[in-house]
Design a protein that fits this description.
Rossmann fold, 2 domains, 5-stranded parallel β-sheet
Length: about 500
């Protein structure tokens, strides 16, 4: 920090923080300028935001270029908060302000009384401090108990008594979150939960720059980029965003869940804690796809509440739990390589059941049963990507039809499992469809073979018990022939000739 100007006089002489550049450059102008530079360079606008390149990101770019306050509407787990926090990458590395100012006043154009007097009385030696982009992001979760004092401020009688000021003086104000976010980004999550009277104070100080605190008028022309997030169900059904505030929100941008499984896999791999200390980890691609498919299947399932959605946190938490279960097995078996299996996904059900809001039908069936069926459907979908049709699995299915039986435990070692799996005729030969040559470590081969068996079970070609004992599938009885409807030309038999005499 020593190379940066430390006084107002030094600041005036610097080119980087000249009065012409700093005085009239508001935070929205700053974000716009830096965004234009980034667009010209052709780099990624928001690194780490996956799946929104053609939908959400262009709309955010338009909002920033338009200098709009905007709101993100989306179900839970759609990276709304992450996007808002990524806006700090559009701020300058350093922002000068008058040292000691609670609202981080512009050195060339202060708005609080204390800083105005400081600049007048000490125009050259007024001390300067700096804020980083992370320090210029203020976030508040809207809850019904938030008060105007929390957001705007309140009269502090202790300041009045110690300083000998009247209660109506600006020196007695204890500033709230919004004034402290002056020359910064102020984000409010779950906006509909904010009480209506608080929203009035919010847009009033945002637009007109004035507010009354305990009956005393305070003029604060703040420089703030205001952004919000909300669940669309709350936004429309509960209707708690007052019309004047809604009118002052420049852009309304809707987020969404990943459009493809590959996008979901990329997001989950980015967010999940997979870099563990100790054992080497290898997560097969088909296992990652099954985990991601669980979220996709759940979002389509009629037993899951569509209004709540299925958060992207579900596959993230599930992957972490799956890895942990495989890690536990490796530690107990003395294996050096950790490779998750489909059985580990069933063991990770505690990471899924709590993230699904079920409809009445789902509640009757039970969360555990619903999740098991969703996992089975996810396995079936993923299996179909690797094995088109079931004709090439006849040899494996026949082994079970002839009385073959095998139990796969998620706690069994890879060597023990591989010894059992080799007895199934033709099973290991099918691993080539998964991109496996058969020379991989036993942990990988077991994971691939187990995936094939779970896929056959998902398609009802073989059976499986709750203890994960695979057996022959139940043969479906031949369909009963429906009685044919008599046409007009059909001859109706005379049943009277066959009537038995009554004794």
């Amino acid at each position: 920090m020593s190379h940066l100007p430390q006084t107002l006089a030094e600041l005036r002489r610097s080119q980087q923080f000249s009065e012409e550049r700093v005085r009239n450059r508001r935070v929205k102008d700053e974000m716009r300028d830096n965004l234009i530079v980034r667009l010209r360079d052709g780099g990624q606008v928001f690194p780490g935001i996956v799946g929104y390149d053609d939908t959400v990101v262009p709309q955010i770019i338009n909002a920033v270029l338009s200098r709009h306050n905007f709101i993100l509407l989306g179900l839970r787990g759609q990276a709304k908060s992450r996007i808002l926090r990524a806006l700090t990458t559009l701020l300058d590395p350093q922002l000068p302000y008058l040292l000691g100012c609670e609202i981080h006043d512009n050195p060339y154009d202060p708005i609080c009384r204390r800083c105005r007097e400081l600049v007048v009385n000490n125009p050259d030696d007024a001390p300067i401090a700096y804020r980083t982009p992370d320090q210029r992001y203020v976030e508040k979760l809207a809850t019904p108990d938030v008060t105007i004092a929390d957001l705007i401020g309140d009269i502090d009688p202790i300041k009045a008594a110690k300083g000998g000021h009247e209660l109506g003086s600006e020196y007695t104000v204890h500033y709230g979150l919004l004034p402290r976010a002056n020359r910064a980004i102020f984000a409010i999550n779950e906006l509909p939960d904010l009480a209506g009277k608080i929203q009035v104070g919010l847009f009033n100080i945002m637009q007109e720059g004035d507010v009354q605190i305990k009956g005393y008028p305070v003029r604060l022309p703040l420089d703030v980029a205001l952004v919000f997030s909300a669940n669309p169900e709350d936004y429309t059904a509960r209707g708690k965003i007052i019309t004047p505030l809604k009118d002052r929100i420049g852009s309304e941008i809707r987020t969404h869940y990943p459009a493809t499984v590959d996008e979901g896999v990329a997001i989950t791999a980015q967010e999940a804690w997979v870099e563990r200390n100790g054992h080497q980890l290898q997560v097969p691609q088909f296992v990652s796809q099954v985990i991601e498919q669980i979220a996709f299947v759940a979002r389509e399932d009629k037993r899951v509440d569509k209004r709540s959605g299925v958060s992207q946190r579900l596959p993230i938490s599930a992957l972490e739990n799956v890895i942990s279960n495989a890690e536990r097995r490796a530690i107990r078996s003395g294996e050096k390589l950790v490779v998750p299996r489909v059985g580990d996904i069933y063991a990770a059900m505690p990471a899924m059941t709590g993230k699904l809001e079920l409809e009445y039908e789902g509640e009757l069936k039970g969360a555990d049963n619903v999740v098991r069926e969703i996992i089975r459907a996810a396995v079936a979908r993923t299996y179909d990507k690797y094995f088109h049709g079931n004709s090439n699995m006849n040899q494996v299915v026949q082994w079970f039809d002839l009385g073959g039986e095998i139990q796969l435990r998620d706690s069994s070692s890879a060597q023990e499992m591989l010894h059992k799996l080799r007895s199934i005729q033709g099973l290991l030969d099918k691993l080539s469809a998964l991109g496996l040559s058969g020379k991989e470590p036993s942990e990988v081969l077991v994971s691939g073979a187990e995936f094939i068996l779970e896929g056959l079970y998902a398609h009802k070609r073989i059976g499986r018990s709750e203890e994960r004992t695979f057996t022959a599938g139940e043969k479906q009885p031949p369909p009963r022939e429906k009685p044919r409807r008599l046409d007009d030309d059909d001859e109706v038999p005379d049943l009277r000739r066959h009537r038995r005499p009554f004794n």
